[in-house]
Amino acid sequence: MRPKILCISFSDIKADARVLRQLDVLAEYGDVTTLGYGEKPDAAAEHLRLDAALPSLPQTVAGVALLAVRFYKRLELAAPAVRAAADLAAGRTFDLVVANEARALPLAHHLAAGAPVWGDMHEWAPEERVHVLSWRLLIKPFMTYVCAKYLPRTQAVTVVNDSIAHLYAQEFGCDTATVRNSRAFEDLHPSPLSEETIRLVHSGAAVPGRNLEGMIQAVNMLGPGYSLDFYLVPARDGGKYLRFLESLASGPNKVTFHPPVSPADLPRVLNAYDVGIFSLPPQTRNHALMLPNKFFDFVQARLAIVFSPSPETSRLIERFDLGAVTEDFSPESLAEALRRLDRPRIAASKANAHGAAMELSSKVDEDTEREILRRLLPQN
After folding, report:
1. Looking at residue 143, what is its pLDDT?
2. What are phi and psi of 376, to 5 degrees?
3. What is the pTM of this model?
């Protein structure tokens, strides 16, 4: 019999590119049951679906009170989505439980009942939204408690890059492997540049704090001959932030908003553009140390890349000569970096992305995950 694997993610898994890639590898080694929001992912044998209205943090009146007085032991399984998840999976046994992000760790260990747990922390858990006052005061100490209690007893821990791995080793003393947000190699070629317009593009979530307005302001500072297209997943705010962005898109250059594209289709859609852009002021350490999905999406789409400064992304942009790094995080700096990236340099950067696409694909990261699975799962 194939091993039984439980994969927990408090996200809409079908829209979560990192978890989808993880599931493809998990399915090579066992029958996977997913536990999260949204519809069943293709790679899952079974899906335990959570009500999207249930929060995965203890955001009830009682939960906030317990956070305030730091009764963390009582909060480990207290969030509404966590309680519902525990009920959905009650009575089942698994050979391995995978917890995506720290908030899933207590539930993962509870459901594992002694089976090994793999914790994919993604980023630096204590400071996920530390720029929000309530998170900084209430959730950060709770996430720190969860990591300190559960990471030492977690058999495998993975994160998105080496800089964040160093933070976990330094703060919690755990051995951590890096699994980047890379994606499978795409058999694409750079698209030719248009004679009239340099086509800028950004893909991601329409979430406040991602500085999408700064990108619109930057493109409006450029002279004629530029366009900016967004492929955005709406936030859970009824479209409020997206409407705000659309209100800014009235400058001299064309700014177009498209519906979101599935992660599998994204590189082929982005391939029609010239430059992938992202500028994010570092409100948290996760922002400062970012190495996001979109970087690898842009590489596989064979785009030139312009990002704001970050140790991980800047290193790769410079190493492979993929485009440019802005001087700072302002719209003015983004506009200036784009002006300096003339057509010959854009064409060369797109060609360099093509040359680096295999090395920056997910093969290395998938091999890291396979090594973890071979170590943790019973051998057939």
Report:
1. 97
2. -95, -25
3. 0.85
